[in-house]
Design brief:
Length: 283
């Protein structure tokens, strides 16, 4: 059966929600659709096709939907807040290259989301964009991203690996709070780092940090409550292999000879590696 409404049609057999050729999708536009098909008909995992006439998707437009897939055309210029908030059936989605920011709360609590493709041109991942995406395993951060804001990947328990590109300038507080990360390389272009970025990342073993950033935010790293090794480095790392020149290991005895005060190191549980001490000994 096909249901024909003012702005959309729905085919009950193909499970396709086809939006008609409109310019804007309003706030909570599909709230009634979701209620009727989700509650009364117990209908889930349908496909939503958005035509290339659409330039704006307003706040919370698809909130609480049971769609498994959205087709997002590059005609879209703006996507509002919480637009896919709490879509439990959504597994994979490709963000349109025409929209430069992943909006606040865009995919928050999309607990079934496993993979998302972010094209080149994306500049910012906003607050809580992927908060609570518990099954998210794969995401590619393009080189055009300059900011990852507060709580962006909070509680992404299955996100074990993520590659941050040179060009990234800012990582907000709690950005990777309680994630499944095992190793992270912070690019040399990062200038600002929020507090508690890696708090409760229980699987995190290594944090590779540019030396200049390490000196600036050493106390913030120690608030991370992890037992990871904090490894400062001087030159840009080869992010495809995540390798750098073999470093020396600083022990508790040699820490006192550095210019960093002893007080700054008291809270540290890991191992800090650097070549500075080795160079001093040679002299």
């Amino acid at each position: 059966m096909v249901y024909d409404k003012e702005n959309w049609t729905y085919n009950d057999e193909t499970k396709i929600l086809q939006i008609k050729r409109v310019k804007e999708l309003r706030h909570y536009m599909f709230e009634c659709f979701n209620h009727y098909f989700g509650v009364f008909r117990n209908h889930r995992e349908y496909k939503v096709i958005i035509p290339d006439s659409v330039v704006l998707i307003a706040n919370s437009c698809f909130q609480n939907m049971d769609a498994k897939e959205y087709v997002l055309p590059n005609s879209i210029k703006e996507i509002g807040l919480s637009v896919f908030y709490d879509n439990p059936c959504l597994k994979v989605i490709q963000w349109p290259s025409s929209v430069k920011n992943i909006s606040e709360h865009a995919f928050e609590y999309c607990k079934g989301l496993r993979e998302i493709v972010l094209p080149e041109g994306i500049e910012m991942i906003c607050d809580y964009a992927f908060d609570g995406c518990q099954l998210l395993k794969k995401i590619t951060i393009p080189s055009t991203v300059v900011e990852i804001n507060d709580n962006a990947f909070q509680c992404c328990y299955n996100l074990k690996r993520i590659q941050l590109q040179e060009g990234l300038q800012y990582i907000g507080k709690f950005a990777f709070y309680c994630c499944g990360l095992e190793k992270i390389v912070i690019p040399t272009t990062v200038e600002e780092l929020g507090e508690y970025v890696f708090t409760d990342c229980k699987n995190l073993k290594e944090i590779h940090v540019p030396r200049a950033l390490y000196r600036k935010y050493v106390y913030s790293y120690f608030k991370s409550n992890t037992h990871a090794e904090v490894i400062p480095y001087d030159e840009p790392m080869n992010l495809s292999t995540n390798t750098i020149a073999k470093p020396e290991i600083i022990t508790a005895n040699t820490i006192e000879t550095t210019t960093t005060s002893k007080r700054e190191f008291k809270s540290f549980n890991g191992v800090i590696r650097t070549n500075l001490i080795a160079n001093k000994k040679k002299k």
